[in-house]
Amino acid sequence: MSSYYEKQQKRRLISSYFSVVLSIALVLFLLGLLGIVLLNAKKVSDHFKEQVVLTIYLKENTKEVELKQLEKSLAMSDYVKSTEYVSKEQAAEFMKAETGEDFMDFVGYNPLQNSIDVHLKADYVTSEHLEMISREALSKKFVEEVSYDNDLVNLMNDNVKKISFWVLIISVLFTVIAVLLINSSLRLSVYSKRFTIKTMQMVGATKQFIRRPFIWKSIRLGIIGATIALIGMAIVFYYLNQTFPELELMNNIVLIGLLFVFVFALGILITWLSTHFATQRFLNLRTDELYY
User: Fold this and answer.
1) Which CATH number among 3.30.465.60, 3.30.70.3040, 3.90.550.10, 3.30.420.270 corresponds to the domain 53-148?
2) Average pLDDT, integer, range 52-75
3) pTM
C-alpha cells in the first residue's frame, strides 16, 4: 500500500512539474514572439513604405545628358533609396503583360512617356517630403509631370501609428498576464507542499533553509521552460528569415540575441520571485489556516 501511495505521489509531482514547465515555456514563447514583432515592427513598416513609387515623367525631347544628370542627382540625394529608368517601350510591354492586349494596335502609336521610378527611404515617405521632392523635380524644364499616391501614403502612415500604439499596449498587458500565469502555476506547486513547509518550520528549520530548495527547484523548472521557449522562438525566427528575406532579419542579430537573453533571464527571475513570495506566504500562516 505504501509503495502504491508513493508511486501516486511521484506521478502527481511529475505531473505538477510538467504543467509548470509547460506553462512557463508557452508564456515565454508567446512573449518572445511578441518581442520579435516589436523589434522588427519598424523594419516591416519601412519595407512597405519603401514600396511606394514616385514617378517622374519626362518630356519627349529630353536629352540623354539631362536624363543622366537627373538620375545622378537623385542617386546622390539623402532621401532616395533607388531609382529605375523606364522607357516608354518598357512601359508599353508592361501594360501589354498586365492587360493581355496590345493597345498600340488600336491607337497606332505609343502614347506613353519615358519615366524614372523613384523609391524613397522610409523616413521620407510622407506627404510633406513627397510634395517637396515633386516641386524640386518639376522645376526642371524637361520634366513633364510627377505622380504618386498621396492618399495611400497618408493611410499607411496613419495605420503605422495606430498599429504601433496598440502593439505597445498589448505588449504591456501580455507581460503582466505572463507574470500572473507563471506566478499562479508556481503558487499551486508550492501550495501542494504547504504541510511539509509547516512541518519543517515546527521542528526548528529557518525560513531561509526551508525556502532554498523550493527556489532552486523553481529556477531549474524556469530554465527548462525558458530553454524550450527559446528553441521554439529560434525555429519561428529561422522560418521568418527564410520566408521574408527582404526584411533582412539577420541584420538585427544583436537585438535578437539580447531578446533571447532577456526571455531566458525573465524565466529565471519570475520563477524565483514567485516561489519566494509563495513560500513566504505559507511560512507566515498559522497551522489551522493551512486547511483553507
Assistant:
1) 3.30.70.3040
2) 85
3) 0.64
